[in-house]
Amino acid sequence: QVQLAESGGGLVQAGGSLRLSCAASGRTSNTYRMAWFRQAPGKEREFVATITWSSGRTSYADSVKGRFTISRDNAKNTLYLQMNSLKPEDTAVYYCAATETTMPNYEHWGQGTQVTVSA
Which of 1, 12, 39, 47 falls between 20 and 30 A from 106, CA-CA? Predict the structure, then answer.
């Protein structure tokens, strides 16, 4: 089993920056890919960014491309999301997720961290 714990959320003004972290523990040796998702109030959860654990290959949602950067520290088993030029519409609970397969679904999820961007 893999446990994921997000941190780094908070309140920031529009145009500001935050860095989210996701610490992975447990049986992490089989992790193939990790990702960030977010869910705003009254909306469905949406994909933000993903990274392949071994190669570092990344992919982003169009809404965050050029503003957010996903990265990982293999030695620390930690996933990051650097968020710059934040907008009020980025306000959401941010979740990290992990999968051990090449399938699009994710088996392991964190509890989430709140990001609030004020206008």
Answer: 12
Location of structure tokens 């030695």: 75
For tokens 């500001």, name the residue.
Answer: 16
φ, ψ (nearest 5 deg) of residue 90: -85, -5
Average pLDDT for consecutive 10-residue bins of the chain (119 residues)? 95 98 92 96 97 94 98 95 98 97 93 97
Q: Are strands 46-52 and 18-26 parallel, antiparallel or unpaired?
A: unpaired
Q: How far apart are alpha carbons 62 and 100 in whole angstroms?
A: 25
Nearest to 48 by CA among 77, 86, 5, 11: 86
Instruction: Return the amino acid letter for 25.
Output: S
The CA distance from 85 to 16, in Å, is: 6
Give me the DSSP letters along 36-93.
EEEE-TTS--EEEEEEETTT--EEE-TTTTTTEEEEEETTTTEEEEEE-S--GGG-EE
